[in-house]
Write a structure and sequence with these properties.
Structural class: alpha+beta
Order of helices and strands: HHHEHEEHEH
Largest sheet: 4 strands, antiparallel
CATH superfamily of the largest domain: Sporulation related repeat
Shape: elongated
Strand order of the largest sheet: 2-3-1-4
Helix content: 40-55%
Length: 166
């Protein structure tokens, strides 16, 4: 039991130190040789973070190929009002998720999310599709600035102990 608490305390202290580092410094520390065994860690990223980092470093492209979920599309007389109602309903159910209302003649379109991978898009579609039954996935050029706005750095690590392990 004492071992478990000691381990959790050390883990919290380690996470606190990591949170204070910049991302580049963290990667540099990982790739430095270990003092005891002289082993190194090779950092290879295959996620959306690697894609964003490459685009930020190059600054050649202002957008990233990604996906959004269209939750509303209509061209009727009440389409504008219904589009904003759909946006408000979505924002109430999924606070913090990006929403976009646009007019693409003659359609009013409400799309949500800034997914950089198809896996993330499918997960979001599964959640949104329960509420908006006509929701569907579309490819989109997502501005890098939009993605950076959505990725806040956590202020403190959130670790919860759900059950006691002996």
């Amino acid at each position: 039991m004492k071992f478990l608490y000691t381990f959790l305390l050390l883990a919290l202290l380690s996470i606190g130190e990591v949170m204070g580092q910049s991302y580049a410094e963290f990667r540099r520390n990982l790739s430095a040789p270990d003092s005891l065994y002289f082993s190194t860690v090779e950092v290879t990223e295959h996620t959306s973070a690697a894609t964003v980092e490459r685009h930020i470093a190059s600054r050649e492209q202002k957008t990233i190929d990604g996906y959004r979920i269209t939750i509303y599309l209509d061209k009727g007389q009440k389409a504008r009002t219904e589009a904003f109602e759909a946006r408000d309903r979505f924002q109430g159910l999924f606070p913090g998720q990006a929403t976009y209302v646009s007019y693409e003649d003659p359609y009013w379109v409400v799309s949500v999310g800034n997914c950089t991978t198809s896996d993330n898009a499918m997960i979001l579609l599964g959640k949104v599709g329960r509420v908006f039954e006509k929701a569907y996935l579309v490819r989109a050029a997502i501005p890098v600035e939009e993605i950076l706005k959505e990725v806040p750095l956590p202020a403190t690590p959130a670790i919860t102990l759900t059950e006691e392990i002996e």
